[in-house]
């Protein structure tokens, strides 16, 4: 029997964890209605929006009349940059430690009515260059060990403002998911002398089963070990460890594939597609990290329509992740949207 038709589990070499795949549970992944939620007609500028140019944010600060990207320190930051006192440990099972950081908001565009998928490649290139500049600046802070660039799109993902924006959190520690990837990639590098993701990408390009789209510099694919129904990953074709090593051509190529992929997502269920997206790159600890290979994760929750989503509950919450739609069928569906 093919692994595509019976229950099996797949290993994620980046996290060292497994995902259960149960394709027999659904003969047609696209069963059920695929009704779309009509997008609200938003104005290009909303005077009540605290991210629009010239408006006053909830903390009292006024935004400038910006015309491109705009970055500011989060008015309600989850982390603080000032040195913090040590926390005494009452027991080895009750450990705590202070975490410093800088949290910033990146407005992608002055236009209130756009999403990343609706912006031009040129405009998205401006976002990529802003991410690059912020990564360099925040990495230079002596207490920062990791810079996480991410976007939550849509109310379903907890986004409280529809204005196109993302966030950057820099931390004095390496976050859990990054540490898992760090350990796995370092182990693979020591054993093979190549990055884990360069070898993985070579296999995906050879098989052509899970590729969604590609250009001269990047590949978007559904990972073999994907958990979310239409999860994707963007990998650089050149082995670069972080965004600050992008050439000008790669900046443009990254913007182009972001545009293509997010626009394809929107066409899948004819809705502004919700997701959490994040750039994964080497830690900001002053080391070269030759084992790191730049990549971007997209974790969208929608399953069968604009209103049917996947939840991590029950077995998945208590035991291990599980999916019905195979990564191969998800990739095929996404490829079809790009032809529309």
Chart the SSEs and their pairings.
Elements: E1 8-12, E2 17-21, E3 70-73, E4 101-107, H1 121-139, E5 146-153, E6 165-171, H2 176-192, H3 196-207, E7 211-214, E8 218-221, E9 232-236, H4 248-268, E10 275-280, E11 295-299, H5 315-318, E12 322-323, H6 327-339
Parallel strand pairs: 2-12
Antiparallel strand pairs: 1-2, 3-4, 4-6, 5-6, 5-10, 7-8, 8-9, 9-11, 10-11
Helix pairs in contact: 1-4, 4-6
Give a structural overview.
With 340 residues, the protein is of the alpha+beta class. It has six helices and twelve strands. Strand 1 (8-12) and strand 2 (17-21) form a beta hairpin. Helix 4 (248-268) crosses helix 6. It is globular. The relative contact order is 0.17. Residues 28-33 have low confidence and may be disordered.
Descriptive terms for the model:
6 helices, 9-stranded antiparallel β-sheet, alpha+beta, 340 residues
Beginning-to-end CA distance, first to last residue: 33 Å
User: How large is the share of residues in beta strands?
Assistant: 15-25%
Biggest sheet strand order reads: 3-4-6-5-10-11-9-8-7
Task: State the helicity in percent bands.
Answer: 25-40%
Q: What's the total number of strands?
A: 12
Order of helices and strands: EEEEHEEHHEEEHEEHEH
Largest sheet data: 9 strands, antiparallel
General shape: globular
Number of helices: 6
Mean pLDDT: 92
**Class by alpha and beta content:** alpha+beta
User: Ranges with pLDDT <50 over ≥5 residues?
Assistant: 28-33
**C-alpha-based Rg, rounded:** 20 Å
């Amino acid at each position: 029997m093919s692994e595509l038709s019976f229950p099996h589990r797949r290993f994620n070499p980046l996290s060292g964890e497994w995902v259960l795949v149960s394709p027999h549970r659904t003969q047609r992944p696209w069963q059920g209605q695929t009704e779309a939620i009509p997008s609200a007609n938003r104005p290009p500028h909303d005077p009540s929006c605290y991210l629009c140019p010239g408006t006053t944010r909830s903390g009292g600060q006024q935004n400038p009349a910006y015309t491109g990207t705009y970055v500011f320190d989060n008015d309600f930051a989850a982390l603080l940059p000032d040195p913090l006192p040590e926390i005494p440990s009452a027991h080895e099972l009750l450990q705590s430690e202070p975490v410093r950081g800088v949290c910033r908001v990146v407005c992608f565009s002055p236009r209130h009515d756009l999403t990343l998928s609706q912006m031009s490649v040129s405009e998205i290139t401006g976002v990529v260059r802003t991410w690059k500049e912020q990564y360099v600046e925040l990495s230079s802070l002596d207490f920062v060990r990791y810079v996480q660039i991410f976007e939550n799109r849509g109310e379903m993902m907890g986004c409280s403002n529809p204005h196109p924006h993302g966030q950057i959190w820099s931390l004095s520690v390496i976050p859990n998911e990054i540490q898992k990837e760090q350990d796995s990639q370092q182990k693979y590098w020591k054993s093979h002398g190549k990055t884990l993701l360069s070898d993985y990408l070579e296999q995906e390009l050879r098989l052509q089963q899970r590729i969604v789209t590609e250009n001269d510099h990047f590949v978007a694919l559904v990972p073999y070990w994907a958990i979310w129904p239409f999860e994707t990953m963007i990998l650089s074709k050149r082995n670069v460890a972080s965004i600050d090593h992008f050439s000008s051509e790669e900046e443009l190529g990254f913007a182009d594939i972001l545009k293509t992929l997010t626009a394809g997502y929107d066409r899948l269920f004819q809705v502004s597609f919700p997701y959490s997206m994040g750039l994964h790159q080497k830690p900001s600890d002053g080391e070269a990290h030759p084992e790191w290979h730049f990549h971007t994760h997209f974790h969208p929750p929608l399953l069968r329509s604009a209103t049917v989503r996947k939840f991590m509950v029950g077995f998945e919450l208590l035991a291990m992740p599980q999916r019905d739609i195979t990564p191969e069928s998800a990739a095929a569906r996404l490829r079809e949207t790009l032809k529309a």
